[in-house]
Amino acid sequence: MTGPRDPFAHLHDEAYADAFAGPGIGWRDAVAMGGRRRLSLAGRWRFTPDLFDEGLRQRWFELEPAPPSTWDRPRDYDGEGAETLDVPACWTCARPDRRFFEGSAWYARDFEWAPGRADRLVLRVGAANYEARVFLNGRFLGSHRGGSTPFFVELTARVRNGTNHLLIQVNNERRADRVPMRHFDWFNDGGLYREIDLVPLPSVFIRAFHVSLAPRGIAAEVVLSDPVSGTARVAIPGLGVAFDVPVTDGRGTAAAEAAPARWAPETPRLYEVEARFGQDRILDRVGFREIRVDGTDILLNGEPLYLRGICVHEDDVALGKVTSDGDIRRRLAHARELHCNFLRLVHYPHHERVAELADEHGCLLWAEIPVYWAIDFANPDTYADAENQLLELIARDRNRVSVVVWGVGNENADTDARYAFMSRLAAAARAADPARLVGAACLINREAFRIEDRLAARLDILGLNEYFGWYERDFAGLERLLANSRPDRPVVVTEMGADALAGFHGGADELFTEECQAEVYRRQLQILDRAAYVRGVCPWILYDYRSERRQTRYQRGFNRKGLIAEDKTTKKLAFGVLRDHYAKRAARVP
Ligand code: GCB
Fold first, then answer.
1. If 0-12 CB within 10 Å is exposed, 13-18 middle and 19+ buried, where does residue 556 land?
2. Which burial class, exposed, middle or buried, applies to 220 when counting CB atoms under 10 A from its CB (0-12, 13-18, 19+)?
3. For the packed helices 352-361 and 325-337, what is the interaxial angle rounded to 10 degrees?
């Protein structure tokens, strides 16, 4: 039996997903968000796990939610009677039996709309790990890949007067062609775990708005939703400037004379800014600073800078990848207590509030995408996915003054395919944002003990992940490495550290003790301090975090290299070692 009425057709259809592969939603669909009215869709959604992908095979999205008494034939999907789940949340944290669920799940909810309320309506999804497909009133609108960047879907043409039925399929399967791939050292959460909003918009709206330092003042760039021409107006009351930006075919740039105070960690000065075009208006708070490298120096506003950093994951024992202002402020407070001026946000884009709060607090950031370990570098689709994640991150955070480095990769073997992939990615970052630095965690020649990575030529900052004293128990290798290397640009140690179980004490050479971790920090910091080209240190990591790769009696599903346990409260001895070291470094001229 064949044909659309064949009730078993879906059982034989292995190409069922092909129809839902496009249109791909990407960075070009972004909407500038500052100060916009948002209608939050947070709250209870109906939730249906779908391990076998029946929803796409059987076209569940075409079924209007209705009680079984009204069905004309049996169904496997009961939109109305499904269990409920909070959004934002990770399904992996909602119920113990879903902890390791990897596959598809359907989120459904209704919303009311009256078309007169706005000319256009866009859905903004803060993040969905990893792939999402959006359906409105039975119609597929598009799919998005990448688990940590926001995406936007225009609903205008499909939204109807009255009740609307929104369905989002999310899939968190680990796969070799994804970014990251199957194998990584953190927890694979699933779901709609950041804010999700309806955004009412005028007929022409501002897609992107960016302000930056210019040679004699400031520059502004405006990108509109449509290729129209006209004049945008930009005002920065704190600088006493207001100026026009002529827009042609939907794009325009202009500069104005101004003398903004320079933003720096010690002086995190921000200015309110407003951009208007037609009926649309964007508000933001921006800072102005210059970051560049000169030889092996990093210069912030022309002054040499030493990065006193710490790596941080976005992870919570109870909430998974869901974060909050309180959680972010705690991270920044712990960083301040350590005398840090820098955070590396590993290994994927963190919540946008991190950079907003770092702008206010005066903390420099390295933001990165999960081009992590051995992703499928030869696969053009994988490249497209990585580049889209990078450009979505840049589109989201380009006005955040605290972000000084875009990280394009972490510990990737120096193959030709990787070199081509990451060179292109570095070029894409520079083209999208010429005013920031590009970095990556690079490789070491383990025979010659030298920093050696072809990618270095494409970067402003060489990140170095090295675990001398831990994975290689001997510190002599670090001394050799530093003595043998002659980098022509700044090196930042983007990782070093050791596992320690909080409360487990013993000798400095006893693995997993707090004493051992503290000793690794002491020796590492002492050695690293002597290399003039090392312009910053960013140890691994602030808090212990969930990682299923880690299963010894001391780890039990946690990477224990935190300076603080996973309760985000209990400090280990190494915390004090780093704090005292950074206190001294902060007092020194860099
Ligand atoms: C690394 C990775 C980081 C790991 C860390 C470790 O080099 O970049 O994600 O978790 O080592 O703990 O070994």
1. exposed
2. buried
3. 40
The one-letter code for the residue type at 47 is F
Which residues face 343 on adjacent strands?
Answer: 310, 365
**What is the Cα 168 distance to its own chain's centre?**
21
Residues 356-372 have pLDDT tens digits of 999 999 999 999 999 99
Pure H helices in 301-397:
325-337, 352-361, 380-397
User: Is pTM beyond 0.85 here?
Assistant: yes
Do residues 494 and 311 touch, judged by C-beta distance below 8 A?
A: yes
Per-residue pLDDT tens over the stretch 143-176:
999 999 999 999 999 999 999 999 999 999 999 9
- Does residue 411 have its Cβ closer than 6 Å to ligand 1? yes
d(CA 258, CA 12): 66
Structural tokens at position 546? 């969930």
The token pair at 407 is 């990280």
Angle subtended at Cα 228 by Cα 224 and Cα 234, rounded to the nearest 5 degrees: 50
561 lines ligand 1 (CB under 6 A): yes
pLDDT band at 305 (very low <50, low <70, confident <90, very high): very high
Specify the residue with its C-alpha closest to ligand 1, atom 10. Answer: 185
Which of 187, 347, 412, 465 maximizes ligand 1 atoms within 8 Å of its Cβ, making it the mutation to test the pocket? 465
- Cα of first residue to Cα of last residue in the chain, in angstroms, is 76
From ligand 1's centre to the CA of 472, what distance in Å?
Answer: 14
The answer to whether the CB of 495 is under 6 A from ligand 1 is yes
Dump pLDDT digits (tens) for 48-70. 999 999 999 999 999 988 999 99
Is the predicted pLDDT of residue 19 greater than 80, yes or no? no
Half-sphere exposure (CA, 13 Å, Cβ side) for 232?
A: 33
Specify the pLDDT at position 15: 80
Query: What is the Cα–Cα distance from 95 to 423, expressed in whole angstroms?
Result: 42
What is the number of helices (H) and of strands (E) in the chain?
Answer: 10, 34
CA of 201 to the centre of ligand 1 (A): 43
What is the C-alpha separation between 402 and 158, in angstroms, rounded? 39
Our CA angle for 570, 576, 579, nearest 5°, is 115
**14-28, 215-229, 423-437, 573-587: range with lowest mean pLDDT:** 14-28
Atom of ligand 1 nearest to the CA of 410: 8
DSSP 60: G
Q: Is the C-alpha dihedral spanning 356, 367, 435, 362 positive or negative? A: positive
| Ligand 1 proximity of 470 Cβ (cutoff 6 Å) | no
Q: Is 185 in the pocket of ligand 1 (CB under 6 A)?
A: yes
DSSP class per residue in 362-381: T-EEEEE---BSS--TT-HH
| 104 CA → ligand 1 middle, Å | 28
Ligand 1 pocket mutation, candidates 369, 373, 540, 559, criterion most atoms within 8 A of CB: 540
How far is 410 from 484, CA to CA, in rounded Å? 22
262 alpha carbon to ligand 1 midpoint, in Å? 35
Q: Say how many Å lie between the CA of residue 548 and the centre of ligand 1.
A: 13
546 and 560 Cβ atoms separated by less than 8 Å: no
Q: What are phi and psi of 397, to 5 degrees?
A: -115, 15
Contact 436, 460 (CB under 8 A): no
Residue nearest (by alpha carbon) to ligand 1 atom 7: 465
